[in-house]
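Quick entry between incubations.
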Amino acid sequence: MKFGIVVFPGTWSEKDTHYAVNGVLGQDAEYIWHGDGQLDQYDAIVLPGGFSYGDFLRCGAIARFSPVMEAVREFANRGGPVLGICNGFQVLCESGLLPGVLMRNDHLEFRCIWTDLKVENASTMFTSAAADGQTLHIPMSHGEGNYQADEATIEQLEGNGQVVFRYADAAGNVTSEINPNGSINNIAGIVNDRGNVMGMMPHPEKASEKLIGGDDGNIIFNSMIENIVSSFA
Amino acid sequence: MTVSKETLDEIALSRSEYEAIVERLGREPEPLELGLFGALWSEHCGYKHTKALLRTLPSSSKRLLVAPGAENAGVIDLGDGLAVAFKIESHNHPSAIEPFEGAATGVGGIIRDIFAMGARPIALLNSLRFGQPDNARTRYLLNGVIGGISSYGNCIGIPDVGGEIFFSDAYKGNPLVNAMCIGLIEDGKMASASAKEPGDLLLLVGADTGRDGIHGASGLASRSFEDQAEMRSAVQVGNPFLEKVLIEACLEALDLPGVVGLQDCGAAGITSAAIEMAERSGMGLKLLIDEVPRREEGMTPYEVMLSESQERMLLAVTPGKEGPVLDLFEKWDLDATIIGEFELGENVRIFDNGVELTSTPVIILTDAPEYKFISVKPEWLTVLQNADLSAVPVPSESPASVLLKMLAAPNIASRFPIFRQYDYHVQTNTVVEPGGDAAVLRLKGSKRGIALSTDCNGRICYLDPEVGTAIAVAEACRNLSVTGAVPVALTDGLNFGNPETPDVQFQLNESIAGMSRAAEAFGIPIVSGNASMYNQSAGKDIYPTPIIGSLGLLEDVEKHSTAGFKSKGDVIVLLGTDSVWDDIDGLAGSEYLDFIHRKVEGQPKLDLELEIRTQAACREAIASGLVASAHDVSDGGVAIAIAESAVIGGIGATITEGPGDRWDAAMFGESQSRILLSVSQENLKKLEAVTGFSNVPMTVIGTVGGDSLSFGDSISVPLAEADNAWKNGFSLATSD
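Done. Structure below.
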């Protein structure tokens, strides 16, 4: 299958994502410049991490207006899989492809740490290679990952199985002490109601090999690969 | 002589330097010319007080691809078609005035030096010094500097993998902010900061030029100044987003035909960057100053030439080939403007709207005077060195409580509260994360890896600049060796006080001599360097602080070692010494003596031969797979090293022999050349064979296991208490 990896000026996780899906997992992958509007040749789109357009104004607030985001919206509306990582999650929220916002971390500091993510829904196309309740060891690196939404939205996300990952301890306990940024209900990743657009703050592409601390991130990319390949079989 | 003292003071030139300019030019300089001299003859650009000394440093190695000083950074061959450029740069004075932007632009500046070599920056380290954190101003500086590094580095996608933070009132009011950057150069892609032929075009790319940072090099960095606040306008403001885009665009541009040179526009702005390019190319240069895009109206040619606006680069491009280059920068939404051309001749000629403002020989501009000085050991130093350390009283508190106090000391406690504010994972090469002795990175597409560290104990350099600097080299290398990496090259960041005073001249002389002696003994070159002088606070010079950045190579990155104990039952071994515990001499310049007794005295010592043998034996043991953990014994001595290995590994330790009556010196003495290892029972014999063969002393001191740290029969500390002290000490000491 072929991944398309969107590059905005200021994106820095595109090479890491390319390395994870191509270098480690052997899939085709290409970069898509933010000025392009043609995504037909891709099976999945990744909006990687970084600081698109310097995150001026607000994280992801300028990126949403770039030509490629119109194409991403159409791609998602056709049911195409879209994964937003960190800044990509922020862009998806700003674009309205996912509900809610990512606010400044409650402690006001940038935070780069390994997190343990409890898989709350292993039936999505991004998590089917994991088991419900399993924890994934994946690093995060952000200053603005404090997920918030209005009460009705949270209720819908929770009731509908759209909360995919929560920050937990290694044993899977979801506690306020382990919450690294103040996210409501420890939310680390969500999907849209159709299940084809996922945003997550931690970086699965940074957990692609044991040598660099762990390879749990591959579970997410492998889930995508299995589901997309089988949908064409 | 028409020039006033005020004018000369503004550009930090002395009367005699002015007279030298007049003599060499054969005339009075134009006002614009005088500004150029002020910048290029500044300490920061011209290395007036260090040039002669720096020439004495060892710089030969079969791995050396670019010699020190020849380009923006030295380049070392790693094999497998890979090479790295690396360098340290200081931004001390800007950070003293405006810590956030000062530190941020320091990071930005060193990154530009590295990608100017055609290298993709792959790692940053920071070596920081502040006054004691019990002071509100110090905490403001600390938080500002960390915030600036975090903000700039995280935005730009380069991992920040290590460094040091050290507190001492010697740096109160004059913090040191040194940043090291390492870049990877793929086969044959190295860039040069010069033009190829007369007629080559000079392109300015990146940010517009504003009034920020004028006199940064000459005014801020090159003299002593008391009223720092008034110089705030000399600090630049950084834009990491622009720099990130600039990196990508410039590295892409180097692949285009006709792009022959790339140069960073840093200290002293276009003046230094363009004129150094002309000098390196052996050509003259015609500069069209009116073509430079500006941030504001009404800027004079003088201001444009001396602005230190950030995120600007210069390119030399073959005429006729500029079209695709300009298109590329447009793709990245960056300004690119032709602002001149290289030409036959030896003068830089500056034009404003067709009018020639000055025509000055490049060689006179770049040939700053060199000052040599007599080195006399000051009396006060002999007194400090001869201090009777046995007169230091043994604390009345218990050894266990002093150990906990030491673990929580601002200079010893875990730096994780700082590191976690930096992205150390991006680029997915980080094998050993910050917090160990050295960071280890893998090199994608190769089995090899590199290790990186910075080190310098200013207190020890103060007590003996020669031995202290040799120790800084030894420790920077030891930090690499305990990961298993072979030291291959060094870079230095010299931070000293006022070089016009005899004491600082002595310190400089001795320090460079010690650096030379140690680097030669290790057989590795010093490939690049930076000098920051006039670091003073309230009229007192800082500790001499020659920060050493070290680069090591691992043939197989999978075979690296880390600091934390691994398994119950492993044997704990000290390499490099016959005894578990240190003696009274180890207290010289130690953290214990300073932190507990507020004394800085004694004579530091180093046996370089033993040091080198010990490191080699450690590396061999790691490469042979014998070692479970390896940790440098440094600040806080062997007791702290044991406690750190235990806390990092999450498992206790039992040391068989107690530390005796003089337990403070025994536990916390900082004698050099010691490495703490843990090995499995079955590997102990093999380790003895390795050390026996290379004539390195080793001592079996205890075993790994349990949930406490015990030293002999009478001293025991629960591991949880040690963990709490070490992990929370930094935050407790630095919060309001």
